[in-house]
Amino acid sequence: MSRRQLERGAALRGMVAADGIVPLGQDFPSDGSGPDTDCHILHLDMDAFFASVEQLRRPDVRGRPVIVGGTGARGVVSSADYLARSYGVHSAMPMVRATRLCPDAVVLPPDGAAYRQASRAVMDILRSITPLVQPLSLDEAFMDVSGARRRLGGPVRIAAMIRERVRTEQRLTCSVGVAATRFTAKLGSTHCKPDGLLLLPTEHVQSFLDPLPVGALPGVGDRTEETLKRLGVRTVGDLARTEPELLCMELGNKAGTRLAELARGVDDGPVEPDTPDKSLSAEETFEHDVAEPEVVHRELLRLSEKVARRLRASGQVGRTVSVKLRRADFTTFHRSRTLPESTDVAREISAVARGLYDAAGLERTRLRLVGVRVEGIEPAEHAHRQLTLGEEDTGWRDVEQVMDRVTARFGPGAIQSAVLAKRDENSL
What pTM was estimated for this model as a whole? Predict the structure, then answer.
């Protein structure tokens, strides 16, 4: 969770439960007449997921604060268990500061394969209930259980069953919000973390929302929050009472309309199972700040290869390439360019990324982090590449597909670009 998410969660958990919010553990009528009658949306959020998976794999660290993240001097926190969080540790915090706040913590490097395997097992549980499952990340998902009610009972019964199955089958805990909309279900799961279940009946949603700070709403970042404060809007209730026309004038039509609806608990978006990725990205924080363009170019090539490999593995291509460049003072620049045709070729992505870096005017500027992102993603079979007259196929896609097969068989690092291999030899 990000710092903003943690702050939102703290604001929610600090509230006295609003009237009408159903206490958990309460039984509900099986005839569908309970307060969850129209609350068919569930939001499941795993509790301190990465850290919890590590505690399962390493029984010797149980009972001690656990932090998962980069272990180098420039590392950042990816996840922290609730014991570590009680010391003030949160995700995206520099690891140096985290270990200063919690010196007794066990610090472990991330193991993406283990987390993906645990995530698949949890998502399989959800899909055994309903096919309408929309994963948002490895550790959270929306569900629409309206079609499962006749077979399994009301939404709260289903949520309780899911929590029990996750606990017994995976030995992990999760929190579940139950509501009529995705937005309010997600707020519910945040409110009851960790290891909780909360129903927000539709008739009591407004009384639940009104006292919340506007920062609890999705899409309200620091800049939007400052704009709203200038208007005297500090709580969701204030926002609900503000004329939508004024919000549109200050925030733009799309953002203003959206926030006006959320402040009233309106969110008509359906659960969309298996929503395809809109973008794929990779980034790297350097061990030491880097100013040499040739070093940045090599890193952009490595990140481009990583993104292209993921594109090919998922059968997708993308059309817009962007770079993320963070200076030593944490000032961050984003630059992007849209290609004439979609691609999954690392050489093509890398060429654009290098060009964007070169044009950013940051040569010899010390950089802390660089990243590569490909957007405008679509299935590869939907994208047709047509060579122009006289243009030759470079063959790089075939070369990279061979590299994919070698990597799949022998593991990462078994084969790589000559430029990257030379860098590794020089570092020995």
Answer: 0.68
